[in-house]
Each structure stands twice: as structure tokens, then as C-alpha cells.
Specification:
Layout lengths: L2 E18 L2 E15 L6 E6 L13 H15 L3 H8 L8 H15 L18 E2 L2 E3 L4 H13 L4 E5 L5 H14 L6 E5 L6 H12 L5 E3 L7 H10 L4 E3 L9 H10 L3 E4 L1 H4 L2 H13 L3 E4 L6 H13 L23 E3 L2 E3 L16
Parallel strand pairs: 5-6, 6-7, 7-8, 8-9, 9-10, 10-11
Antiparallel strand pairs: 1-2, 2-3, 4-13, 12-13
Helix pairs in contact: 2-3, 4-5
């Protein structure tokens, strides 16, 4: 039976100015894809496309026009599930990873009854939770200190602090303060540089971080410097995790990248990589090279975050994951997602409420 598709754009407002090494985030746009059978419109699947400025290869002016044109073609031709899956596997969609992900999500949701269930497992059945890291956003020293205290009180056993926005001496002082009160066997500390350092700076930063038993550092230098990153990974006293480095890399280039750099960890963000099938490819490559990994959300709203959580649980990776971003927005879609004692689950009191999303038909 042919499917019908529609979309809506929703602007999310941050509860605070979210600082990164690429600048301050105040708002972000998500685009929701809705799929339903033309005879049963009350049952529908929903997916979220959430491109990130400065990161997503499909964050460009043509993004929304592409959705409109594709959906018009979609509805005119009366495509079925198999047609959509074939289109998503085509080379055209390599340039639109977050849209590919949204359609992949919406199809899975529809196939599972349109209940925001993407994978059948103990997480989606509200029987289990996923341990996550507490994220410390960049800002002045007082702001970062407050976040650290709040996360520790909330029961997190792994913290990830973004570094590279203020001076490293101040950031190091904050990390040292945490470590002086919580040894490594009680609290895991990760840092994320988002490519903030030069090669020379990164080498010095890594030496200092070693003194604090830091678990790992994400993307110490900017992406696309394979030779420099390989040098860092070979010599580093602190394990390095590739993040931005993976964006826009497909096919044979994936193995080439891992062979060249030989990182200690990989971080997967399905929105930036092109969805679950694309992430599966990276996971398979990582397994062949004995590279460990974890999955991180990329500032999706609750719909996308929920799907990523369900997918992550299905992979049985026991490292703390980076899935705690749902509480960042003032106007997020109400959902049962809940974070308690450093773990995320579907055990919250709220129910899914999509009434705030105005689809175009």
C-alpha cells in the first residue's frame, strides 16, 4: 500500500547559552518526517532530521527545499516501504545523512505500530536503562562549576567536560578539583575538545590530562588532518576518541581512515553519519580492528534521542553512552524519557505528545 509523507520544522530553544569551541548555541532546528498508510492515517511513524551548524554536511540552505521536493515526488509517485529503503541506499542520500536518518526512523516506527518504538528490546519496553555520561558545557568558571556540582549530586559516575573555549589553565583547574575529590575508581572523566587545539597544543594538553587519570579525549585537533591525528594516537598518554573525524566518510574511505589513524575509541552519532545502517557499518569495522566505541546524541529532540537510545541498547555496549541531551531544551516534545542516577530510561511520567508539531498535511 502506498505511503504518504509530510514534514514540519520545529525550532528548539536552549535553556542556556550552550558553549562549544565552535561558538554559542541558543536555538537549533529539527525537521520531523511523518509517514503513514493512506488508508490508516491515524497510525504513523515519525523520524527526526536534526542537522547541526558547523558539523553536519547537510546543514546548508538547500536542506528544507530538498525535503519539500523529495516529499512532493514521494507523494506523487505513491512510494512503498521498499521504494523508500532503496532510495535511502542510493548515492544521492549520502549528501543528506540526517534526512536519511529521519526516513529510516519513520519507517521503523511505522512498521512497529506508530508508537515511537524503533527497536524491540528491554529499553523500549521500559524494563531497563542505559548508563550515560553527564555533559558539562563550556562557559565561565562559575557556570561550569555549577554544572559539575549538579551532575555529581544527580548521581552521575561519568562526566564529560567540553574544553577549548576558555583558557586551558582554568579548565584544568576544574578537572583537577573534581579529581581531587573523586578518584578514577569512583568517577570517570572524559573531555571533548571539538577540534579546539593545534597539534603542538594538543601534545601538551594530553601530557597534563594524563596526570588526572582522564579516560579519553574526543577530537583534540580539527578533522581531516589524518597524519597529525595518527601521530597523536600513536604517542598519546590519554586515549583518543574520533568524533567529527567520521563525518562525511563513507564506503572504502572508512577503512582507510581507521587504518591510517588507528584511534583508541570511536564515537558514533547516527544523525551525522546517516542513520542506523550507516552506524552499523562503522561498528562492524571497529570490531574488526578491536576499536571500542560508544554512541552520542547530536542535540536531537526527544524523538530522535529516543530512537538513538533504543538502537544503542540493542548493541549491548556497556560503556557509558552520551545520551543525556534531552533536557537541554525549553520546548522539547513531551516524552517518557527520564534521566535518573546517571542513566536514561523510558520510565518518566510523561507520555508522547506530538500536538506541538504542525505537519504540512
Amino acid at each position: 500500500m502506498p505511503l504518504k509523507a509530510s514534514y514540519c520544522k520545529h525550532t528548539l530553544n536552549f535553556k542556556f547559552d550552550a558553549g562549544t569551541s565552535r561558538g554559542i548555541l541558543k536555538t537549533k532546528d529539527s525537521y520531523y518526517i511523518k509517514l503513514h498508510d493512506s488508508q490508516t492515517p491515524e497510525t504513523f511513524g515519525v523520524g527526526e532530521a536534526a542537522p547541526l551548524k558547523g558539523l553536519s554536511i547537510d546543514y546548508k540552505p538547500e536542506f528544507e527545499p530538498f525535503i519539500k521536493v523529495f516529499l512532493e515526488k514521494f507523494n506523487t509517485e505513491g512510494l512503498e516501504s521498499a521504494d523508500i529503503q532503496a532510495a535511502l541506499s542510493s548515492e544521492m542520500f549520502l549528501s543528506w545523512p540526517s534526512i536519511r536518518f529521519a526516513f529510516e526512523m519513520a519507517l521503523l516506527d511505522l512498521q512497529n505500530g506508530g508508537k515511537r518504538t524503533y527497536f524491540q528490546n528491554a529499553f523500549s519496553e521500559k524494563k531497563d536503562a542505559i548508563e550515560i555520561n553527564g555533559l558539562i558545557w563550556m562557559g565561565d568558571e562559575a557556570f561550569m562549576s555549577r554544572q559539575i556540582i549538579d551532575k555529581l549530586k544527580a548521581g552521575f559516575r561519568t562526566l564529560k567536560m567540553k574544553i577549548g573555549a576558555i583558557d586551558f589553565d582554568t579548565e584544568y583547574k576544574l578537572l583537577k578539583s573534581i579529581r581531587s575529590n573523586f578518584p578514577a575508581d569512583e568517577l570517570t572523566l572524559r573531555v571533548d575538545a571539538n577540534g579546539a587545539f593545534t597539534l603542538d597544543e594538543a601534545q601538551e594538553v594530553l601530557k597534563e590530562l594524563k596526570k588526572l587519570d582522564i579516560h579519553s579525549i574526543e577530537q583534540p585537533i580539527k578533522a581531516n588532518q589524518w597524519e597529525s591525528m595518527a601521530k597523536l594516537c600513536q604517542e598519546t598518554p590519554v586515549p583518543i576518541a574520533l568524533d567529527e573525524e567520521l563525518i562525511g566518510i563513507n564506503g572504502a574511505e572508512q577503512k582507510k581512515l581507521l587504518d591510517a589513524i588507528k584511534p583508541q575509541f570511536l564515537i558514533f552519532k547516527p544523525t551525522l553519519l546517516g542513520g542506523f545502517a550507516a552506524t552499523d557499518n562503522w561498528i562492524d569495522l571497529a570490531a574488526k580492528q578491536n576499536i571500542d566505541w560508544w554512541i552520542t546524541s547530536a542535540l536531537e529532540a526527544n524523538i530522535g534521542l529516543n530512537a538513538i537510545c533504543q538502537y544503542t541498547y540493542s548493541k549491548n555496549n556497556l560503556l557509558p553512552q552520551g545520551l543525556g541531551t534531552g533536557s537541554l531544551f525549553e520546548n522539547n516534545t513531551p516524552s517518557p524519557l527520564d534521566v535518573f542516577q546517571g542513566a536514561i530510561s523510558l520510565g518518566g511520567k510523561d507520555k508522547w505528545d506530538l500536538s506541538g508539531l504542525a505537519f504540512d498535511n
